[in-house]
Amino acid sequence: MAMRPFSLQKRCHFIMKASRFLLQIHHTGCISSTVIPGVNRLDTQLCYGHVPRWLHCSSAFCKSKSDSTDLQEIIEHEIEKKTKSLVTHDELFERAARDAKSKANFNRVLDTFNKKDIRRRGHVEFIYAALKKMPEFGVERDITVYNKLLDVFPKEVFVPRNFIQRMFNHYPRQQECGVQVLEQMENYGIMPNMETKVLLVQIFGEKSHPMRKYQRIMYWFPKFKNLNPFPVPHELPQDPVDLSRFSLTRIANDLDAKITVYQLPSTHITEAGEEISHPHIVGIQSPEQRTLLAKHNPSRPVFVEGPFPLWLRKTCVHYYLLRADPIPPEEQIEEELEPELIGPEQSLFYPQCIDLDLKRDLGDDDSFDVDDVVEGAVYAMCMTGQGDQATLAQWISGLQENNPILGQVPTVFRLDSGFRELQKVEDIHHDSEQNQHSGAEEEHIIEEEVLHSQGMKR
Amino acid sequence: MNLNRILALLKTAKLGRTLLSTRAGKELSFQHPHRCIQSSSRSLAYAKDLFLGKVNKNEVFPYPEISNEELEELKQFVAPVEKFFSEEVDSKKIDEEAKIPPETLDGLKALGLFGIQVPEEYGGLGLSNTMYARLGEITSLDGAIAVTLAAHQAIGLKGILMAGTEEQKAKYLPRLASGEHIAAFCLTEPGSGSDAASIQTRATLTEDGKHFLLNGSKIWISNGGMAEIMTVFARTEVLDKDGQKKDKITAFIVEKAFGGVTSGKPEDKLGIRGSNTCEVTFENTKVPIENVIGEVGGGFKIAMNILNSGRFSMGSACAGMIKKLIEMTAEYAGTRKQFTKKLADFGMIQEKFAIMAQNVFVMESMAYLTAGLMDRPGVPDCSVEAAMVKVFSSEGGWVCVSEALQVLGGIGYTKNYPFERYLRDCRILQIFEGTNEILRMYIALTGMQYAGKILTGKIKEMKKGNVGVVFEILGKKLKDSLGRTVDFGLTGKDGMVHPSLTESAKMLEQNVALFGSTVESLLYRYGKTIVDEQLVLKRVADTLINLYAMTAVLSRASRSISIGVRNHQHEVLLANTFCKDAYFKNNYWMIQLQKNSPENNDDNIKKIAQEVLENRAYICSHPLERTY
Known about the structure:
With 458 residues, chain A is of the alpha+beta class. Helix content of chain A is 45%, strand content 11%. In chain A, helix 6 (123-137) packs parallel to helix 9, helix 9 (172-187) runs parallel beside helix 11 and helix 10 (194-204) packs antiparallel against helix 11 (209-225). With 628 residues, chain B is an alpha+beta fold. Chain B contains 23 helices and ten strands. The interface between A and B is large, with 33 and 42 residues.
C-alpha cells in the first residue's frame, strides 16, 4: 500500500511534464523502500510464473551460478567505495577482461552483479555499461547473453498494476533501458526468442514499451531476414579459392557463367632455399561473354582493369575485369536476319514480325523511357591472391584456351594501386609485398604494358 | 425447311460436279502449277476473313463431298488396308522391338500406301487430299506406321511432288511411290528447331559448277536410318539484286548413294517407337546441280509449303485412333460391374464417352472440311486451316486417350493392354510438325497480318481522332449493345444451316462478330508489337480454332441432316453440344482480351514465370520452414 502515494506523486510529475531527471530522483529515493512489499504481495497472483521461484531471478537463470570468488571480492570492494557512477561498472568489466575477453567472463560479471545486491541497485547503469562492453567481449551476437542481461532487471517491480500506471510511462528509465537492450539486439540483427518474451513480460508487463519494441522486432525481423536475394553468409569461406568462387558468382549473377580455377595457391621452395608462392587465380566467364569476345575487333585492345573492391559484410575482396571500350557507332554491325526468314507470311513456322504500319497504343505502352548508356563489354572477371601483371597475364593466357581470339588482340593492363586502403587490416602485410607496381604514372605504364603484352603473345 | 433442304442439295450437287472436275484439274496442276488459270483468281480465306468479323459462308457451306465414283474407289482401297491393319500388323511387337518388321513394310508397299498422293503416271495411287485423309484414319491405328508413312510422303517426297522438275519426278517418284525407296525430310538441326534462320548445313558449289558439296548434320530425322532419298535444306551463297553475296536456303534431293551420308543410332523414344528417328550427317556429299528443288535460294518457300500442306491429315488420323479407342473402352465399360452397376451407368464415366465422341466428331469435321477445301481447284492457301486442324486434333486426341485410360483404370496403365501405347504414341502429335505453341502463333499472326493490312487505315484515322470514324464505331458499339442481333445469313430463308442447328449458328455468328471487334481493338492497342504478346495471341488462336471447329460441325451436321445419313440426329446433338460449349469458352477468352479485364491474369502469369526462370527453380520456401 505504500506504493500508492508514490505513484500518485509520480503521476503529478508527469502531468506537469516534469523531466525524467526529476523522476529518477524519486525512483532512487523511493524504489527500494516502497516497491518490494507491494510486489511481494502480488507474487501469489502472478499469472506468468508457473513455477515458484526466487523473485528477482527468471526461471531460466536460477541454476547458473558463478563460481568466481575474486570477482565477487572486486564487487564487494566496489560497494565499499559506494560509487554509483557508470565508470565503476565499466571498471567491473575491464577488470574481468584482464584475463580473457570471453563469454564466460562476461557472464561471470553479470552473475556477480546479480548476487551482490538483492535489490539490484544501479542495474540500469550496469546494463548500459554491459551493452557497451558486449562487442568487446565478442558476445554482441549471442541471444543467451542478451537474455541474461535482461534477467538483471528485477522482476515484476515495473509491471503496471492499474490503469493509470498503464496509461502513463511507468518507470520510464527502466523501460528505456529495456528498449535499449532490444535496440542493440536489433542493430546486430539478433532475433529475440521466447525466453526474451517471457523475461520482458515478467519485468515490464504485457503492454510496456519494451514489449512493444519486442513485438515490432518480431513483426519486421522475420520479414527482413530473407529479404536479400543475394545473401552473404555470416561466416565467409576461409579458403581463398572458395571465397573467390563465391564472390565471382555473386558479381556475375549469371547461372550460365562458369568458374575456372586457373591456379591453386601453393608454395614452393626452390633449390636455393627461396620461397616462391603461387597465388590463386580464379576466373569466371559466361557463354555470352565468350561469344561477345569472339566478335571483338582484334585491332582494338582489351583491357585488364582493377582492382575493384567488393564488400562481403566486413571483408573486402578485389576483382579484376577483362573489358573493352564501347564499340564506336561506325563499327557497329547490325546483325541482319534475312527478311525472308523472319518476315510475315514467309517464316517457316511463324512470323517473327508482321508488316504493319501501326504502333503500340499509348494506353498500352507500359514501358519506361530508359536511356541506354553504352558501355564497353566485360568479357571476363577474375580474382587472384596477387594483383600484379604477371599473375594477371597468367589468367589471360588461361582464358586464351577457350577464347582463341585473345591471341590476336593486344591486351593492356591498367592496374590501380587502390588495393591497399580498401583491404582489411590483417591483409595489409600481405599486400605491401604483393602489389609492387603502383600506378604512379598510369600513362607510362600503359605504354609499357602494351609493349609487354604484345611481346607476350606467342 | 423443305426448301432449305432442296437448296442445300442443289448446292452439294453443284459442288460434287465441281469436285469431280477438280480431280482432273488438280492432277493437271501438279504438272503445270503455274499454268493453272484459276490459281490466281481464287484465294481462299475463310479463316482469315473471320479476323475481320466476316463469315465467308460460301467457302464452307455446304460441306465438301466427294463423288460417288471416288467414294467407290476409296472404299476399294479402304477395305484391304483395314484388313491388313487388323490382321497383319502386330503393334505390340513393333512397339517392343522398336522396329517395323520387313514383312509389314512389304505389305504396306503392296497396298500402295507409300505413294497415296503420287500421281498414277508415276506409279502412285493419285488420291486427293480427302482420300488421303481417309486412308490416314486407318494407318493411324499403329502410330509408328503412321509416322513412317507420313514422314515418307507427307513431307519426305512432297518437295519433289510440289516443286520438282519433270525429270526429277520421273527419276525419283516411281521408286518412292512403290516404296522401293523411302524418303525423309531433313530440316531440323541441333541449333535450329523452330528457328529456320539458324540452319548451319551448307552447300557449296564445286569449281566445275556442276555439283554442290553438302556439309552439316540434321537431327530428329524420321526415317533417317532407312531413307534412300532425302529432301535436305541447306544454306547456299546466292547473289542478290545488288550483286552482294547472301546466304539463302536451298532444297536438295540427296540420295544416300551420293556418299558421305551417315545416319546415327536410332533414338529410343517414348512413343511411336517403331518409327526410325535418328541423326543424319552429311560430309562432303556431292549433289549434282540438277537435284536442286525449285531454284537455288528458293528452298525456304518450299519448306514452308511442305510443312503447311502436311498437317491437315493429322485430324483424321487422330479421329481414326480415338474411334478405335472408344470401341475398346466402351466394351470394357459395358461389361465391368462395380457396386452391382455397370461402369457405363455412372455419370462421370458417361461424361468421358461424351467428351470422346464430341472430340472425334469435331476432329473429323474439321479434317474433312479442310481436306475438301484443299481439293478445290486452284492453289488455295489452307495453311491456317490445316494448322488449326493439327492443334485441335493433337490436343483433343491427348484428352481423349487420357479419359479412356481413366475409364479403364489399372488396365489402361499396364503393358498387357494396348492403351498405354496409345497414350505414348499420341503425345508426339502435339510436338512434331511444328509444336502447337508455334502453330498457335502462326495461326494468330497470319490472321492479324491479314486483318491489319485492311484495318490499318481505319485505325489510323481513329487514332488521329477523326470524328467521323469515331462516331461510326461508337454507333456500331451502341447498336450492338442495344441488342441488335448479328446476322450473317447462316440461318433463315437463304441460310445454309439446317433449322435444327439455328441456335448454334446464332452463337457462331455472335462469336464471329465479337471476334472481329476484338481483333480490331487488339490491333488498335498493340499494332505491330502484337508479335510479342504471346498470351494474347494464344487466346486469339484458340478462339479462332473454336470458330473454325463450330463452322465445320455446323456445316457437316447440316449436310448430314439434309441428306439424311444414318444417325444424323446424333450428329446434330454433338454439333449443338460442342457449339454451346465453344461459345461460352470463346466469350470468356474474348472478355479476357479486353483492356483492363479483371478476368485476365496474364501479368501475374508472366511475373510468376519470370521469377521462376530467373532462379531456374521453384523458389518458394518449404511449408515447414520457420523464421523464428
